[in-house]
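Support request from a user on the community tier.

User writes: "When I paste my structure tokens into the form, the page sometimes reloads and wipes my input. The last time it worked, I copied everything first. Here is what I submitted, just in case something in the input itself triggers the reload:"
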């Protein structure tokens, strides 16, 4: 998300930094480029206009132009105002997270169009509430128009271990919602997640049905699930639901497929409703809280190290991490270690997702693209390693031609795939040795090519 905007703003700020001392004309030229970048990222014109007016007022002041690092001051001003747009008038603490401070069972209503990822988001949210906040959740489908939607939510519920309210033929959405709250109360549930029916476009029938359900159960939270890839259509949708049904917050889906990010910047400013979560992939755990300050940092290429550390803390066992650290310090890295790292990468959302959180990664996007990292092969590579004997994983030098043919057959892959994995292992082992020699400062100075004598590895 925000790839286009991050690249454009990164270029603008790099030029400012190279100039050192800035004149008012330098800042004005940079602000014009920032304005164009925001418009190209599909940010709504009124939002761009207000943002630029606020930034310009601060950025051309004497305190900035005569400071020791004027370029850095401009970057900070842009960052702070981006965060303010994303955060809104509320404080950072109040604008983030899902407020469930009510008498249980707390009703949470999910609204949105068909195809926006609403049903999948219901399962993601239920999993998060169950595992992170230790809540007992009941999943409920109010979509009587599409029986497949009810079946999908039931299947997802079984997958994540969250109960699903049984369907009764002929029951209306309002009746289902009331029965769900009664069932949730009798079964001691903390949260009842109500997945409403959607349509392919905004229509009167959908709005009336959603308003009737809201009036019947008086939900503590009414969340719009909007597809980030629809751009300004997501903003128009949010306005329609906010006016007709009432919203307390927004969940943006498919943000991993939206390179522009204009919807996120426009939604908060135009609707006044906070973005509570964002869906970052298809997996049932690919749901992240929306932190305004962190997202502003990502847009400006500052990365989001806090989120990266949180992801690692959620998925890495401390004992395993310490064990791997000791092995790397001694110069040992075998295929068991590689398999562990592949699993870790998948749990953290893949290589692309992890790298997107690192500061300055935008400057090596070309190198990453040339490396041709294919996220889909992670599972196949794990299967290849699992087909090896313990001795082979500890000592990869044992892998001659016949052993590689046996491993390929056992893992359902091919010998060339086994060969590529072994080449990747050798490159990683070499990279570990090289990184130890370079140290943190050396890596920052040389980047990816510094780790590989022949350039970044290709797969």
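"...and here is what came back when it finally went through:"
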């Amino acid at each position: 998300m925000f790839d286009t905007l991050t690249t454009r703003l990164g270029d603008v700020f790099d030029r400012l930094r190279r100039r050192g001392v800035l004149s008012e004309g330098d800042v004005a030229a940079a602000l014009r480029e920032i304005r164009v970048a925001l418009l190209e990222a599909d940010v709504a014109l009124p939002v761009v206009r207000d943002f630029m007016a606020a930034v310009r007022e601060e950025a051309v002041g004497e305190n900035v132009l005569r400071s020791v690092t004027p370029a850095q001051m401009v970057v900070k001003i842009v960052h702070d105002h981006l965060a303010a747009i994303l955060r809104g008038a509320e404080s950072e603490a109040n604008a983030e997270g899902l407020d469930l401070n009510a008498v249980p069972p707390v009703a949470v209503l999910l609204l949105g169009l068909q195809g926006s990822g609403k049903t999948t988001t219901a399962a993601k949210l239920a999993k998060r509430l169950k595992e992170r906040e230790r809540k007992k959740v009941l999943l409920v489908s109010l979509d009587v128009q599409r029986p497949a939607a009810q079946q999908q939510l039931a299947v997802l519920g079984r997958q994540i271990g969250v109960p699903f309210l049984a369907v009764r033929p002929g029951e209306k959405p309002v009746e289902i919602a009331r029965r769900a709250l009664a069932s949730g109360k009798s079964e001691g549930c903390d949260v009842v997640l109500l997945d409403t029916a959607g349509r392919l476009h905004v229509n009167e029938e959908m709005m009336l049905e959603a308003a009737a359900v809201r009036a019947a159960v008086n939900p503590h939270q009414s969340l719009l699930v909007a597809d980030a890839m629809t751009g300004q259509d997501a903003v128009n949708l949010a306005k329609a639901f906010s006016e007709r049904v009432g919203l307390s917050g927004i969940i943006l889906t498919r943000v991993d497929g939206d390179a522009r990010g204009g919807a996120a910047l426009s939604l908060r400013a135009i609707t006044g409703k906070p973005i509570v979560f964002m869906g970052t992939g298809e997996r049932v755990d690919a749901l992240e809280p929306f932190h305004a300050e962190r997202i502003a940092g990502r847009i400006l290429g500052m990365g989001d190290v806090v989120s990266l550390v949180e992801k690692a803390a959620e998925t890495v066992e401390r004992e395993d991490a310490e064990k791997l650290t000791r092995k790397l310090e001694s110069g040992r890295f075998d295929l068991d270690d590689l398999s562990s790292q592949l699993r870790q990468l998948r749990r953290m959302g893949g290589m692309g997702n992890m790298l997107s959180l690192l500061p300055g990664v935008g400057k090596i996007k070309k190198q990453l693209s040339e490396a041709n990292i294919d996220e889909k092969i992670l599972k196949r590579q794990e299967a290849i390693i699992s087909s090896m004997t313990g001795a082979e994983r500890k000592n990869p030098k044992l892998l001659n031609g016949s052993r590689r043919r046996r491993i390929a057959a056992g893992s359902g892959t091919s010998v060339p795939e086994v060969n590529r994995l072994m080449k990747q292992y050798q490159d990683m082992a070499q990279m570990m040795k090289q990184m130890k020699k370079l140290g943190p400062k050396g890596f920052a100075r040389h980047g990816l090519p510094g780790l590989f004598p022949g350039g970044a590895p290709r797969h």
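Agent notes: The reload is a front-end session timeout and is unrelated to the input. The chain is about 60% helix and 10% strand. The two ends are 25 Å apart (CA to CA). Escalated to web team.
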